[in-house]
Amino acid sequence: MDHGLEQGGSETCVLVDDQDRVVGTAPREACHRDPGLMHRTVHVVVMNRRGEVLLQRRSIRKDVCPGRWDTAVGGHVRPGEDHEEAARRELREELGLEGLPLVWVGRMKVETPWETELVGVFITVHDGPFSPDPEEIEELRFWKKEEVETSVGDDRVTPGLAREISLLKRCGYW
């Protein structure tokens, strides 16, 4: 099975253009240092039945935005995977969840000084329990939407979270 790893254990990222067409691959480390290497990622927004959104506090060992609050599930699309396959894999790896219905929300481009991601966003509903991966996640909790919105822009959350909220609002999911 291809785990998206290059020789030596480095994760391989799928490089894309603005229309999400594959233009190549590059090691994760290169993609996280060069905003010119736009790469394909997925996020899964997890809501509970009360309409609260599940956020994860990223591990302090992460190379990008360590210790910041972010979407519950996120990761790179591996070579040969489509967005939904990657979303399901990340749900399983990060939260221990399988078989949930996923709804495609859309794509968003997230640009920072260190990287550029073209993110495919899905949404699902689940109240828990969860089995968070301690290598990836420091903390996991549901937030009220208003609480998330007031946190956007401060150092506690990732830069992409505001873009994701805007996408969810435009699509009627927020």
Describe the structure concisely for a colleague.
The chain is of the alpha+beta class. It has helices spanning about 30, 85-95, 145-150, 160-170; strands at about 10-15, 20-25, 40-45, 55-60, 70, 75, 105-110, 115-125, 135-145. Strands 3, 4, 5, 6, 7, 8 and 9 form a 7-stranded mixed beta sheet that branches.
In round numbers, the mean pLDDT is: 92
Whole-Å distance between the termini?
Answer: 37 Å
* CATH architecture tag: Alpha-Beta Complex
Total number of beta strands: 9
Q: Which overall shape is indicated by the principal axes computed on the Cα atoms?
A: globular
Into which percent range does the helicity of residues fall? 10-25%
Could you give the order of the helices and strands? EEHEEEEHEEEHH
Low-confidence stretches: 1-8
Count of folded domains = 1
Which percent range describes the beta-strand content? 25-35%
Count every helix, treating DSSP H or I runs of 4 or more residues as helices. Answer: 4
CATH top level class name: Alpha Beta
Q: What's the CATH topology label?
A: Nucleoside Triphosphate Pyrophosphohydrolase
Give the radius of gyration.
15 Å
Structural class: alpha+beta
Q: Give a short account of the largest sheet.
A: 7 strands, mixed
CATH homologous superfamily descriptor = Nucleoside Triphosphate Pyrophosphohydrolase
Domain Nudix hydrolase: 37-168
Organism: Winmispira thermophila (strain ATCC 700085 / DSM 6578 / Z-1203) (Spirochaeta thermophila)
Protein name: NUDIX hydrolase
Keywords: Hydrolase
